[in-house]
Design brief:
By secondary structure, the protein is α+β, with helices and mostly antiparallel strands. It has helices at residues 28-33, 36-49, 67-78, 85-91, 93-107, 123-129; strands at 14-20, 62-64, 111-117, 135-139. The longest helix has 15 residues, at 93-107. The protein is globular, with a radius of gyration of 17 Å.
């Protein structure tokens, strides 16, 4: 029997699972009036999708737009010793819980992204600052 109470790691990184519909989109008129906002958009996009961190533990972002790919990712990441995804979910309450949260959000039109963020990387705080109706942290350091 295998038991997991939470995300398991040997590192000082934080794992995030985020449901999002899109990034903030600032219209041309506003950018013309406030040019610095164009840089803001680039910084936010890079923080979410980029990997230009000094921390070797910060990983590339993976985005899932369908349940097949999400299930495959969860099984490849956490399914060692299990024959099927269904068996993994039946026995692993953590995987079952995060999968159910993701399914619910995907049914509401969200995409799911996963990312590990190394200790001291500013992204961790930024993800919580970005929380809104269109950007929901399903799993993170504060969860």
């Amino acid at each position: 029997m295998k038991i997991r109470n939470d995300f398991v790691t040997n590192s000082s990184s934080s794992s995030f699972v985020i449901a999002f519909k899109g990034l903030p989109n600032i219209d041309e008129d506003t950018i013309t009036k406030y040019p610095f906002l164009e840089s803001y958009q680039k910084i936010v996009k890079d923080a979410i999708f980029g990997n230009n961190s000094a921390s070797y533990e910060t990983t590339e972002t993976e985005v899932f737009e369908n349940l097949i790919d999400l299930r495959r990712h969860l099984f490849e990441s956490y399914g060692y010793g299990y024959r099927t995804f269904e068996e993994l979910c039946k026995e692993d309450s953590w995987v079952r819980s995060i999968y159910k949260k993701c399914v619910k959000k995907m049914e509401e039109g969200y995409k799911i992204l996963t990312k590990n963020v190394g200790y001291g990387d500013y992204r961790e705080d930024l993800f919580y600052e970005l929380e809104s109706d269109d950007f929901v942290v399903l799993l993170g350091e504060h969860e």
